[in-house]
Amino acid sequence: MIKNYSKIKMDITKILSSRTETRKLPENLNEKDLLIFEHELNKDLQATNLYVLNSVYINSDFFVFKYFNPIYNTNINSSRILNKKYSIKNKIIFFYQNQIRRKKLKFETAFWLTDNWSKNYFHWFTDVLPKLYIVNKNYKNEIVILRKGFENIDYIKKTLQMFENIEFQYIRTFQIAKIKKLNIISPTAPTGNYNSDLIKEMRFFLLSLFSKKISKKTVTRIFISRKKARNRKVINETEIISVLKKYDFEIIDFENYTWLEQMQFCFNAEYLIGVHGAGLTNMLFMKDYSKILELRRNDDTHNNCYFSLANALNFKYFYQLSKVDDYKKRTQENNFYVDKNELEINITEMIKIDK
Questions:
Q1: Which of 199, 270, 273, 311 is most solvent-facing, going by the fewest CB within 10 Å?
Q2: Domain residue spans in the chain?
Q3: What is the distance between the alpha carbons of residues 74 and 141, in angstroms, rounded to a whole number?
Q4: Which CATH architecture has domain 214-352?
Q5: How far is CA 66 from the centre of its chain?
């Protein structure tokens, strides 16, 4: 959220009111693991606001400038008004960019909705698409500026087709855009959290548009393989496959498929198992009242984004804590060892709910 906005001239309009999201504990909670989830059960979300900056420039490095002064950074890690010390470096950057011969973009009005994480699969679907949905629903013939290269990413290219009320323009590296009225929407929720009403509405909109393009696959139980990934592989995947096959789970490596194909797999799925990672974002495309089993690092109390997403979608969430190969590394850099016997217990617990 933009802070200290009184320092610069800015119009502010509330889009979504503040709210509290209430979440259910996992279906298979072990009391000793309560510490992992209890701080996520009631999450206060700030209001989502539309901030309007007049007569500004923006560059592909996520900086907003007033004349030659950088005043705001839309980078997700430092989304804030810039102080003077921080500005000196970026004044030089802007001066250089302003002298580049590439033609400057000029717009009467435009939206800027992305940050430096937005090309990531999870962040695109959970942070950016809800904002695009808001713009498409509430405005007509608006321009949204994206960084050059976004249009070449399969899942971005496909989902941009959803928004008939939006024209997308692309800003290249070292290029700047001059905008008389720049609209910036603050997060609809902190990353890893969700306005449940909005995320469900956006999900319905997305599925209704793409359902006719989906050839209905009969896969109902999916295990997400990461054997080709750099990190977060299941070290003993060969060992646990026998358990997964016993309960009719398809072993699917989403990296081998286009985004539309991934959606096709998940469209009729009722069960999804996977290591903490972007593949679990595909629960967005599953049937109502689905079941999710997340394989998590056994000392990780921080990464609850899929627990929260399953709750926002009214899915039943299960978890399994796993050992990793190097506890000095972050969760995102680890590989996982999944206990075969515990996995079978959790799968039977998931299936039992339907009986």
A1: 270
A2: 7-16+48-209, 214-352
A3: 23
A4: 3-Layer(aba) Sandwich (3.40)
A5: 30
